[in-house]
Sequence to fold (396 residues):
Amino acid sequence: MATRTQVCIIGAGPAGLLLSHMLHLQGIESIVVEQQTRAAIEGTIKAGVLEHPTVELLGQLGVGARLRREGFAHRGIGLAFGGRRHRIDLHGLTGGKSITVYPQHELIKDLIAAVLANGTAIEFGAGAVSLHDIDGIHPSVRYTRDGTGREIRCEFVGGCDGFHGPSRQAIPAALRQEYLKVYPCAWFGILCHAPPSSEELVYAHSERGFGLVSTRTPAVQRMYFQCAPGDQVDDWPDERIWAELRARMANDEGWTLKEGPIFKKDIIAMRSFVCETMQHGRLFLAGDSAHIVPPTGAKGLNLAAGDVALLARALGRYYRHNSRTDLDRYSAIAIKRVWRSEHFSWFMTSMLHEFAGEDAMTRRFRRAQLDYLVSSRAAATSLAENYVGLPFVGVE
Ligand code: RFL
Ligand code: PHB
Fold:
């Protein structure tokens, strides 16, 4: 069974859904092919922090109403170390910008609703997805669904299928330059029923390692701490988790964590990854399929949005003006913003974690960097402008 469309998008994560919606707004047809069920992707806990440019974009695309109503704008973050909590005034240092805490799976629900309302098909539960003829003029995507083989013939393929999807592998290995850094730690994440411990996110560094106090709603909190890469969820019973979080957040100011029943635990790998190029023939990668950042800078979803904003505009120009110029430059332009966020995420990770086997000098450098950040307006401004998000490139 073969169907035709202009752009076949693989993956219904933030990148794929946003791309489909942005194409629709320009009169370009797409079909989204997703291997998981709708319930699974609407229920997976991932990101929490949206940058200023991402929130602006979602508003402009008409999918920001619930986000504005139910998300929480934060005008600063805390940096805790050496027994004290310091505030980075994001709003004051960036001329009025802030970040918004809004769970990724809620954004996914909003985007799926918008895409379906556009009349665009999302093929959930697609198996054995494969890409064909991406370097010709008639690419296609094949998959199985409900036991039958299907094919989508298209003009372009949007490879939005995350780190493990097939799109990146469809670019010949000889044309791909891949960069990978694996950090010798992981993050342990929890969701718990408790009131917020702090009005703003707190990134903490201690001799025991990194800790992060984030939030979801006034009644549900999200917290993370650095753990060993080989740790399993079962290694961490609730009491051990709270003892570790208390130790990481220990301070001389009398500030304590508000604890409550933990209802979700997960372990997140820490790596930096970039695939250069992000395009081949009629295939364009966007989001985690092309790059991964450690979550310390809260950048992954936001980078996906930046890629898609650029790609959707380039496809719009192709269909309106029959010009491939912007499409041909897509990877070269997108990758600059990618590397900036990659560097920031590495910087935040290196500054806030402790790694086994480090020498004393490295530890003192880290402390000097933290002291500088909270005592110099220039240093704090640099962190703030990266954290709230640099403007999307190539987007008017
Ligand atoms: P996704 O979200 O991985 O979506 C890819 C989709 O493709 C589907 N897929 C396939 N479909 C068809 N055929 C196949 N063979 C397929 N293989 C895969 C998948 O099922 C999925 O639906 O990639 P996308 O769209 O590029 O979005 C990237 C973001 O999800 C990711 O970067 C963020 O979650 C990263 N991240 C954060 N980013 C932020 O901007 N701010 C944050 O605060 C933040 N916190 C986080 C995070 C990621 C985390 N985890 C769990 C890794 C916190 C955590 C804990
Ligand atoms: C989250 O709330 O899930 C979160 C917040 C900040 C990060 C990463 C994740 O840097």
Remarks:
- The pocket of P-hydroxybenzoic acid (ligand 2) is lined by residues 47-49, 201, 212, 214, 222, 295-296, 298 (CB under 6 Å).
- The chain has a mean pLDDT of 97.
- The CA atoms of residues 54 and 302 lie 6 Å apart.
- The chain has twelve helices and 21 strands.
